[in-house]
Amino acid sequence: MMLRSTTLSRLAGVSHAFFTREGGVSQGVYASLNGGLGSGDERARVVENRKRMAGALGVAPENFATVFQVHSPDVIVLDEPWDESARPRADAMVTRRAGLAIAVSSADCGPLLFADEDARVVGAAHAGWKGALTGVIEATIAAMEGQGARRARIHASLGPMISSAAYEVGPEFKARFFDADPAHAKFFAPSPREGHAMFDLPGFIAERLTLAGIGSIDDLGRCTYGDEKRFFSYRRMTHRGEPDYGRHLSAIALKS
Length: 256
Known about the structure:
Blueprint: E1 2-3, H1 6-9, E2 14-19, H2 43-57, E3 64-65, E4 75-78, E5 92-95, E6 101-106, E7 110-116, E8 121-127, H3 129-134, H4 136-146, E9 155-158, E10 168-169, H5 171-180, E11 188-190, E12 197-199, H6 201-212, E13 216-219, H7 234-240, E14 248-254
Parallel strand pairs: 3-6, 4-5, 9-13
Antiparallel strand pairs: 1-2, 2-14, 5-8, 6-14, 7-8, 7-9, 10-12, 11-12
């Protein structure tokens, strides 16, 4: 049902999980632990799945918060949970309130969980290529610092995401990264198709974290595209022409 980071698991007072697609009640392409409120799945099933996730983290279902993700660098600091029908638009959250879980959804993009054990501040970020390129990682770290964290004490974990072996991109994609910084060329490998390349999203995210100067980085090293039994994948759905796909949730909370 879930994967855990070795580093985050060592921190006192922190509960976290990178939930897989296993252990829920959804059916069909959503089987079975689909946490995506924005998917076409039956809402009652998604609500039950999220209730199970909240329970695994030891928080009440109403204290399990997500945002309406828009591939932005925007971060929200939470003091109180909100009604899920009015989720704010953002791609990262930070909190220092105990008993409140913050979660991001993904199905190939990079879910990131952060924690400063001493300051008791945690964060969660959804880092697709666009968010990672435009600064969601750095913005999350800055928001944590605004709540008392120190970046040298922040531990970050990269959850399951698409690997470079499955992430073929076109020339326009490459150009955007090269225009931002020619040094980004190291994250692109040759593709069998002319003019295309294989993009290393986990490597790109890891470098952004390293350059930010945080205390440690832990990468679970799991590919969402390649492990259908355990993970949903937007790209796999696209290649197969399926009508929709499920979403994983990755969550972190401070224990009361």
